[in-house]
């Protein structure tokens, strides 16, 4: 159908492009994308030749009026990002808002998103979850963001937290999370999902930091934290189990 289609693309494994995603891209008048080279590679692999138009944070506002004109004339336009689901820590939100406000059709072709896949593989409670995306890269604003999370937790938020992070900042971010939220929080580091070196490390924040220092995680990573109280609960259960075991022992 005419309108804007948000099309999810692979997060590593090129086979994770659904037939409907492919058909939608093939039927688009043009594709809005981040890095045209990345999307071009995807198109070439599937034998497609569709005009590409870059859409990123710096030109999104300027591009919106022209895209709306196209959509009003009945064009089919697709939006992709370099990887995964558009808008999720990627451009497109302002465009989608504008399309909705203009009363024009918008639809989505679901597919990979690193956040949801990492959540399901983490072994942490799947809901409620809070997707935080990237923390601010610099120390001060990052501590402030973590303090804000701590404030929400003190007010009762008990959710699994999901962060995106650049691999070279993982150890630094783990240290900042330990400083703000304590070393005992259950956590997980999911890296290179859907790729050859896919790996999920699970443990307390302190254990993950020790691991990240000894063996820095390479590639793309998602960092997850279990809800507060989980660790304490786990420890209580362990205490109960120990007590029960000791009661059973004839001393
Ligand atoms: N839109 C994408 C999505 O739906 O997942 C996310 C784009 S964001 C700019 C890129 C971040 O997503 C990376 O820094 C990493 O935190 C995460 N990511 C993307 N692909 C990943 C993968 N294969 N394994 C682990 N994390 C990944």
Automatic annotation (TrEMBL):
Keyword flag Transferase: yes
MF (Gene Ontology): rRNA (cytosine-2'-O-)-methyltransferase activity
Catalytic EC class: transferase
Catalyzed reaction equations: cytidine(1402) in 16S rRNA + S-adenosyl-L-methionine = 2'-O-methylcytidine(1402) in 16S rRNA + S-adenosyl-L-homocysteine + H(+)
Keyword RNA-binding attributed: no
Ranges in coiled-coil conformation: none
Residue ranges occupied by any Tetrapyrrole methylase domain in the UniProt entry: 4-208
Alphabetical UniProt keywords: Cytoplasm, Methyltransferase, rRNA processing, S-adenosyl-L-methionine, Transferase
Location of the protein in the cell: Cytoplasm
Gene Ontology, cellular component aspect: cytoplasm
EC number: 2.1.1.198
Domain of life where this protein originates: Bacteria
Reported function: Catalyzes the 2'-O-methylation of the ribose of cytidine 1402 (C1402) in 16S rRNA.
Family to which the UniProt record says this protein belongs: Belongs to the methyltransferase superfamily. RsmI family.
Protein name per its UniProtKB record: Ribosomal RNA small subunit methyltransferase I
Lineage: Bacteria, Pseudomonadati, Pseudomonadota, Alphaproteobacteria, Acetobacterales
Encoding gene per record: rsmI
């Amino acid at each position: 159908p005419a309108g804007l289609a948000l099309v999810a693309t692979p997060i590593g494994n090129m086979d994770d492009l659904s037939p409907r995603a492919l058909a939608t891209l093939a039927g688009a008048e043009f594709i809005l994308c981040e890095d045209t080279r990345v999307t071009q590679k995807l198109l070439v692999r599937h034998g497609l030749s569709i005009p590409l138009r870059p859409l990123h944070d710096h030109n999104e506002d300027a591009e919106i009026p022209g895209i709306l004109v196209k959509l009003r004339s009945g064009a089919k336009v697709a939006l992709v990002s370099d990887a995964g689901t558009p808008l999720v820590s990627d451009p497109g939100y302002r465009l989608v808002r504008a399309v909705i406000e203009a009363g024009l059709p918008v639809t989505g072709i679901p597919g990979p998103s690193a956040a949801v896949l990492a959540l399901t593989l983490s072994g942490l409670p799947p809901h409620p979850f809070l997707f935080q995306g990237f923390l601010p890269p610099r120390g001060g604003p990052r501590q402030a963001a973590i303090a804000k999370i701590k404030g929400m937790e003190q007010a009762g938020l008990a959710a699994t937290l999901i962060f995106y992070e650049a691999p070279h900042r993982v150890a630094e971010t783990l240290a900042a999370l330990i400083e703000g939220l304590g070393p005992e929080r259950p956590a997980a580091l999911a890296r290179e999902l859907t790729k050859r070196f896919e790996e999920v490390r699970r443990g307390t924040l302190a254990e993950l930091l020790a691991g990240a220092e000894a063996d820095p995680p390479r590639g793309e990573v998602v960092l997850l934290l279990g809800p507060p109280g989980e660790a304490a609960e786990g420890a209580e259960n362990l205490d109960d189990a120990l007590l029960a075991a000791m009661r059973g022992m004839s001393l």
